[in-house]
Amino acid sequence: MEGTAQRSNAGPAGEPTALSGLPCDVCRAHGGAPSPAVDQVELGVRDLRASLALCARHLAEVDGLAQVLRDRPRERRQHDTAGFPRLRADEDREVIRAWARQSGLPVAASGTISAAVLESFRAAHQTQRTLGDGA
Description:
- The protein is an alpha+beta fold.
- It has helices at residues 25-29, 56-71, 93-102, 115-134; strands spanning 3-7, 39-45, 48-54.
- It contains 4 helices and 3 strands, in the order βαββααα.
- The chain has a 3-stranded antiparallel beta sheet with strand order 1-2-3.
- A hairpin with a 2-residue loop joins strand 2 (39-45) and strand 3.
- The longest helix is centred in the C-terminal third of the chain and has 20 residues, at 115-134.
- The protein folds into 2 domains: 3-71, no CATH class; 93-134, Dihydrolipoamide Transferase.
């Protein structure tokens, strides 16, 4: 999973400082009495961006997780490509994505294009080629 995290409220020595009266978003989400937030963390995963106010406990958990992720060896991820045909040399992902959006088909901004979108694109363009060849 691709993502980023960025802290925004560290003091001069890097220690968290209190945010004026903001409650911890994670404490609130769990339904408990929210502790006061000591830092604001910006998170990003794929197309999702979020800003969370965190108490000292939840900030420590995020920092611990970030350290585990930094320390682990980087591995090349193997994607399950079943059901996702390969693009041909004459096919451009961005052209296919633009066509899919114009056609009202759901298509992600990045990553693998679904078989349904690719098949629809090929069918539409095969029809256009056939009509163009006969004219």
